């Protein structure tokens, strides 16, 4: 194929490229009927104007938690209801003040006034609206594991769930969504919070082989032209997806493999195109985790990468001596940052037998790969 031919080749293999975008909400959403029914049941009191029951949604990444909530929320908006559903992405809104401001913004369509520069004031305004308009508030804290640092989850839940004490007559329900199966909320939450937060747990198990196959096949039929991806190669994508457990990896692989085929001006995806796509798609998790870090956490990660070039085993105590000098962080802040990197599965923190509190630190990814996103 000549360069001229390649430039002229403007055929696309995508019937609809949006189908593979990260925020696309599929029309076809199977295998989650049980969870959706359970959620609808918990929220039903809110439609009529009472407080909805609280829920805890748990399941590993890419098992359909966010999509389920978004679908239910759009159904609620379509029917007459006293309940205002608000979805919060806690990777972005990760403090009490930011969350309350976002709630206000979603209710009113604009930022809280300049006077609302304290979380208390913003909460006052929210309560005022709820009482004046006789509305119920439903807040979904998505990816709430990002609030476990600096105790933010306790602070936010305390305010929302005890609002009726400060503002009699307000009704607020909460959905907490968590994808880290190691998190034990009963250990993380204060008794002041657990006494008002007894959520019903809704579990999202990983998809089986057949479910993964059907979900991805559905996307392929909607998003690509017939014959672009064979069933045999779709099986290869399914295998990779199951290995990571995250549906997003499969969806992203199909998109990239199709682009690779287009680049080669082929009408059909080859094994090689899939193989190349997987090399990138399998780092999806790494990419989003690194992007969600705060500045000092990124700086810490850079130092860990630098130090990992030597053959010495990194320990939390020795790394701290360097961090203290370079970043001027106190020990508590440093340790919280380490815990967060561990929680996000970027590093592995491990106790060493018989040596007090110091921990061994290992990176979970190839340092060169991490650097790409820092
Ligand atoms: N049952 C399903 N049918 C079709 N698509 C699905 C299904 N489940 C998940 N997906 C797709 O997989 C991707 C991940 O789903 P979603 O974002 O809902 O997962 P999640 O459980 O919220 O993951 P995380 O914990 O990482 O936030 C989305 O693109 C979604 O459209
Ligand atoms: Mg999600």
CATH-derived topology of the largest domain:
Rossmann fold
The CATH class of the largest domain is: Alpha Beta
Number of domains: 3
> What percentage of the residues does DSSP assign to strands (E)?
5-15%
Binding site for ATP: 63-67, 207, 219
Pfam family, one: AAA_16
Protein name: ORC1-type DNA replication protein
Family: Belongs to the CDC6/cdc18 family.
Write a concise keyword list for the protein shown above.
AAA_16, 3 domains, 18 helices, 374 residues, binds adenosine-5'-triphosphate, cell cycle, alpha/beta, Rossmann fold, ORC1-type DNA replication protein, binds magnesium ion, Arc Repressor Mutant, subunit A, 3-stranded antiparallel β-sheet, 5-stranded parallel β-sheet, ATP binding
């Amino acid at each position: 194929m000549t360069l001229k031919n390649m430039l002229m080749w403007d055929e696309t293999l995508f019937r609809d490229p949006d189908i593979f975008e990260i925020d696309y909400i599929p029309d076809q959403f199977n295998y989650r009927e049980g969870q959706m029914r359970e959620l609808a049941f918990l929220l039903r009191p809110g439609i009529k104007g009472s407080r909805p029951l609280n829920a805890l949604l748990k399941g590993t990444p890419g098992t359909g938690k966010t999509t389920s909530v978004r679908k239910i929320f759009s159904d609620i908006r379509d029917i007459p209801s006293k309940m205002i559903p608000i979805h919060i992405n806690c990777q972005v809104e990760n403090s009490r003040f930011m969350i309350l401001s976002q709630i206000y913004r979603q209710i009113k369509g604009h930022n809280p006034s300049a006077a609302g520069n304290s979380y208390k004031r913003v909460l006052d305004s929210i309560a005022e609206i709820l009482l004046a308009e006789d509305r119920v508030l439903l807040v979904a804290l998505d990816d709430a594991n990002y609030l476990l640092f600096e105790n933010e989850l306790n602070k936010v839940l305390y305010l929302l769930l005890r609002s009726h004490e400060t503002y009699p007559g307000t009704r607020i329900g909460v959905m907490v969504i968590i994808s880290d199966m190691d998190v034990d909320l009963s250990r993380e939450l204060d008794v002041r919070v657990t006494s008002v937060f007894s959520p019903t747990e809704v579990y999202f198990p990983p998809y089986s082989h057949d479910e993964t196959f059907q979900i991805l096949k559905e996307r392929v039929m909607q998003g690509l032209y017939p014959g672009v991806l064979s069933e045999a190669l779709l099986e290869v994508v399914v295998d990779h997806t199951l290995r990571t457990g995250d549906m997003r990896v499969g969806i992203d692989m199909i998109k990239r493999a199709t682009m690779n085929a287009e680049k080669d001006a082929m009408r059909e995806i080859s094994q090689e195109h899939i193989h190349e796509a997987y090399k990138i798609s399998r780092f999806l998790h790494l990419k989003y985790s690194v992007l969600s870090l705060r500045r000092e956490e990124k700086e810490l990660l850079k130092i860990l990468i630098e130090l990992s070039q030597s053959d010495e085993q990194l320990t939390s105590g020795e790394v701290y001596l360097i961090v203290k000098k370079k970043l001027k962080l106190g020990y508590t802040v440093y340790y919280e940052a380490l815990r967060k990197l561990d929680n996000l599965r970027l590093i592995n923190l491990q106790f060493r037998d018989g040596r007090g509190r110091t921990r061994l630190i290992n990176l979970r990814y190839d340092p060169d790969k991490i650097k790409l996103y820092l």
